[in-house]
Design a protein that fits this description.
With 220 residues, the chain is α/β, with parallel strands linked by helices. It has helices spanning 42-50, 144-150, 163-176, 196-206; strands at residues 17-22, 56-61, 82-85, 88-91, 118-121, 155-161, 180-189, 210-212.
C-alpha cells in the first residue's frame, strides 16, 4: 500500500463486540415479497462472520397482516408511494414478513444457532420499525440498547438487509445510544430508492460510524 492508500484497519472481535444481523428473512431475498437485489448473497458472508464473533444477535421483521406500512392497507395507493402517518412520512411497502409466514422466517441457510437474542420488530399494527433499537415513531424502544449495555458490549458490527433502511437506521441509532458502530458493507445489500443508498452511507459516516469489509474482520 502507498501512503495515499494505507493498510485497512483489521478488527479483531472480542468480548466487548457484538455482531448485529438485520432482517435476513425470506421476503427480503430474491423471490420474496420485498426482495432486495442480490439479497441472498449476504448469507454466506454473514455465516463466515458469525464464526469470527464471540457474540451475535439478530432482528426479525414481524408484521401483522394489516400493518399500516403496507400499501394494501391504503386503498388506491401503490407500493413505494409515501404517505403521512401520525409519526411522519412512511414509505408504503408490499405486504411482507407477515407473522407466522414463510416470508417472515430467516433465510434457511442462515446459521441461527450462534444468535444469543432475536428482536422482533414492527409487530405494532400502527407503527413501522426499521431500526433494531426503536420504532419509526422514534419513541417506542425495542429494548435492544438496554440488553447490549447490560451485557457490556461497546462496539457493534452491522450486517444484513437493507443497507439504506433497516441496517442504516440501526447504525444511526447505535451511535445515538453511545455505541461504536461498524457497517460491514459487503455483508449488506440495499434497496436504493432514488439515491437512498448514497444518502444512508453519508448519514452513517457523518454520525461517526466506520465502514469496513468482511475481509477486515479477523479473529480474536
Amino acid at each position: 500500500m502507498t501512503a495515499e492508500q494505507p493498510d485497512p484497519e483489521i478488527y479483531r472481535p472480542g468480548e466487548a463486540d457484538c455482531l448485529v444481523v438485520i432482517d435476513v428473512q425470506n421476503d427480503f431475498v430474491p423471490g420474496g415479497a420485498l426482495a432486495v437485489p442480490d439479497g441472498d448473497a449476504v448469507v454466506p458472508v454473514i455465516n463466515a462472520l458469525l464464526a469470527r464473533f464471540p457474540h451475535a444477535v439478530a432482528t426479525q421483521d414481524w408484521h401483522p397482516a394489516d400493518h399500516r406500512s403496507f400499501a394494501s392497507a391504503h386503498p388506491g395507493r401503490q407500493p413505494f408511494e409515501t404517505v403521512g402517518l401520525p409519526y411522519g412520512d412512511q414509505v408504503l411497502w408490499p405486504d411482507h414478513c407477515v407473522q407466522g409466514t414463510f416470508g417472515a422466517e430467516f433465510h434457511p441457510d442462515l446459521e441461527t444457532q450462534p444468535l444469543e437474542l432475536v428482536v422482533r420488530k414492527g409487530f405494532r399494527p400502527e407503527i413501522d420499525s426499521y431500526s433494531a433499537f426503536a420504532e419509526n415513531d422514534r419513541r417506542t424502544k425495542t429494548g435492544l440498547a438496554g440488553f447490549l449495555r447490560e451485557r457490556g458490549f461497546q462496539r457493534l458490527f452491522f450486517a444484513g438487509l437493507a443497507t439504506d433502511f433497516c441496517v442504516g437506521w440501526s447504525v444511526l441509532d447505535a451511535r445515538a445510544e453511545g455505541f461504536e458502530a461498524v457497517l460491514i458493507e459487503d455483508a449488506c445489500r440495499a434497496i436504493d430508492l432514488e439515491g437512498s443508498l448514497d444518502a444512508a452511507m453519508e448519514r452513517m459516516r457523518t454520525a461517526g460510524a466506520h465502514i469496513a469489509q468482511a475481509s477486515q474482520i479477523g479473529t480474536g
